[in-house]
Amino acid sequence: xxxxxxxxxxxxxxxxxxxxxxxxxxxxxxxxxxxxxxxxxxxxxxxxxxxxxxxxxxxxxxxxxxxxxxxxxxxxxxxxxxxxxxxxxxxxxxxxxxxxxxxxxxxxxxxxxxxxxxxxxxxxxxxxxxxxxxxxxxxxxxxxxxxxxxxxxxxxxxxxxxxxxxxxxxxxxxxxxxxxxxxxxxxxxxxxxxxxxxxxxxxxxxxxxxxxxxxxxxxxxxxxxxxxxxxxxxxxxxxxxxxxxxxxxxxxxxxxxxxxxxxxxxxxxxxxxxxxxxxxxxxxxxxxxxxxxxxxxxxxxxxxxxxxxxxxxxxxxxxxxxxxxxxxxxxxxxxxxxxxxxxxxxxxxxxxxxxxxxxxxxxxxxxxxxxxxxxxxxxxxxxxxxxxxxxxxxxxxxxxxxxxxxxxxxxxxxxxxxxxxxxxxxxxxxxxxxxxxxxxxxxxxxxxxxxxxxxxxxxxxxxxxxxxxxxxxxxxxxxxxxxxxxxxxxxxxxxxxxxxxxxxxxxxx
Length: 509
Known about the structure:
The chain is α+β, with helices and mostly antiparallel strands and 509 residues long. Helix content is 22%, strand content 16%. Strands 2, 5, 6, 7 and 8 form a five-stranded antiparallel β-sheet that branches.
């Protein structure tokens, strides 16, 4: 799915994190093959603010045919806040913003809403509140949007660490991971389970480990130079830093960009040379037009470099940028002031268009909204990710949280006999019942999934959750606490695992 969506991100405009005129651009542009392609929520979320527009507005350009201002800009948006579990009681709060959503007038040419639309969004229909134009910013007031629901219709810095080898060096042992538990049993007879975690993670995950510091030495073959010469290192040593995907490590392409290293010039705009240095490109040629040429442009120089260099654009997707949002009007003067300077775009046109800059700022404000979201307003700096890179990376997190559990467990449990007959064996469960029953075991279940690599695929996770480990005696007993970190289940609906992209129909009778 992500590969398909990435095809909608063109390289010729809207590149993260820089615009064609060298300003911060902390989002991406998606251009689908058809204007009838819905915009969908990336995750379950709460609506923080939104705007529904009846008609588009003009950015000031004129239609060459009619001579009238072209209505070419949509001001509709939806801002969602997402909260998810990342593991061991840690939660992450992040936001997703969907801008330039199609106006209602254009929508009606593509989509006929039902006579009595639902108050809730769905994958196939817009909610009533998304069909009520007001052209003003509205608070979410607790509205929910779920993953894949249609929102609208649209046209770390890590010190001085360096990589010794361009690619990982494979361990010389055959089937290293498959034989890991056997190795742990031989090397750590006092507690093979702790030893297994040392070999796999470089640290013991349990709160109260059995192995003490004298018995957990873990010698692993590692390369010591650029040619791949290997030696052995005790990774149990506290001086050895252990990183995972949750750390967004630099050697997987992530890079923190803030006020200390942002590639900006004195004018606050992106610098061609500083950007080259930041992406580690010391050999790139300058723009083909010499700086003394009347056609030379700093904007064109940077655009030419970014748009015609796939490697640079791929590197930019790993930037995690700390800056002010372009949708916060508190940022307008420092962001656009160069346009009004004597040598700026509007400054050079003062004689013929004295109000040009003011009209431009007025247009920008029609798109902005963050001053009406108290928790985000006031020129605050926020952390921005490349949207698709963030989604692709965070999908690696297979930790199942309380919210997923509410959706995962069925409201009713059934026994299946031969044929299609099913017998209801429990009363309907409330969300509170589900959470109360599963929460005491959730941490251990997730740790088991992670430790034994059940998270290598959605199918393995699904099978683990569906596994019946003893004869069912009562449909109300979902857990067998005597069995270490595993689930006893009865007949579950096949649709309950749809959130992992897997559907199962299993006869557990």
